[in-house]
Amino acid sequence: MSIETQESIETDNFDSGLEKLKTIVEELESGGSGLQQSLKLFEEGVGVSRRLFEILSRSEGRVEELLADLDRVPFDRSES
Question: Among 10, 46, 70, 73, which lies 20 to 30 A Cα-Cα from 28?
Fold first, then answer.
């Protein structure tokens, strides 16, 4: 799988995960669920949150790699 394909999948997963987390938070904040359902939702929200942090962490690492690559690219300073 190419890096671009992997990044696209991670973006899709992040976006859908964030929407899922928003839905869970809204449901919990509404107070309409009983204790058992609220605990299940909270547990699901924690799992989604962990996956989102993993995606963000990988993305941060990729940004750092790209920035490090820029530091190694030679260029003519007289042009700036």
Answer: 10
pLDDT above 90 covers what percent of the chain?
60
For 3-67, CATH gives 1.10.287
55-73 pLDDT, tens digit each: 999 999 999 988 888 777 6
Structure tokens at 57: 């962490």
Burial label, 27 (beta-carbon count in 10 A; 0-12, 13-18, 19+)? middle
Q: Looking at this protein, which amino acid is placed at residue 9?
A: I
Kindly list the domain boundaries of the chain, sorted by start residue: 3-67
C-alpha to C-alpha distance for 30 and 19, rounded to whole angstroms? 17
Smallest Cα–Cα separation from 14: which of 68, 52, 70?
52
